[in-house]
Design a protein that fits this description.
alpha/beta, about 240 residues, 12 strands, six-stranded parallel beta sheet, six-stranded mixed beta sheet, 8 helices
Amino acid sequence: MKKFGLIGFPLSHSFSKKYFLEKFQKENIQNCEYELYPIESISELPALIDRIGSELVGLNVTIPYKNAVIPYLDELSIEAESIHAVNTILFKSGKKYGFNTDIPGFEDCLLSFIPEKCKHALIFGNGGAARAVKYVLEKNKIDFTVVSRTAYEHQISYSDITSTTLKGSKLIINTTPLGMYPKVDTFPEIDYSFISKDHYLFDLVYNPAKTLFLQKGEKQSAHIMNGLPMLIGQAEASWKIWNT
């Protein structure tokens, strides 16, 4: 039996197990299982690996461990090392290899979503998911400004966002958990009256399918996309890594 799973905490919001179990059934993939492994501290990972045993082939990694998991790995892919964030682990020949499939998952979705005229983006949040977003934007020569709760070097706060900022950034990407189930009443606090039909709002949150961030953008006739297509893309990229 090949074993796969997801580590993070909490995992009540995750769709990964349902997705992979349906994939196994639909594609008639035999002798595979995918489980959720909520761990309250990344220090629990070695014991978890020992408990699962030698049948463990791969793990996905979600918040808050995409960065914290790195010291527990033997080697990193170029992308994972570049952004210092891992969301996929391959167990092979006694070694643990770290990858980041958020990068191809996000890039494929983004390029199918936005027109070439989008040359500046606002990124809400500065965590592990934001690192993948920044990597893709830099690769595609799209300038960006990072927005977080507190202003630091190379990032501004939400209170620093002006009408000029919003009008000049046609692509807005939410990488924070704001709006994610069960806290569906939260959203990035900006002045949505400056959002227009020329804006493209991308929310990495996928549950609910339409967060308040996306709803508010849609009311202003903006183009919107949630995180489900990206999640499917990164899941399939993980599966490819585990089976090559």
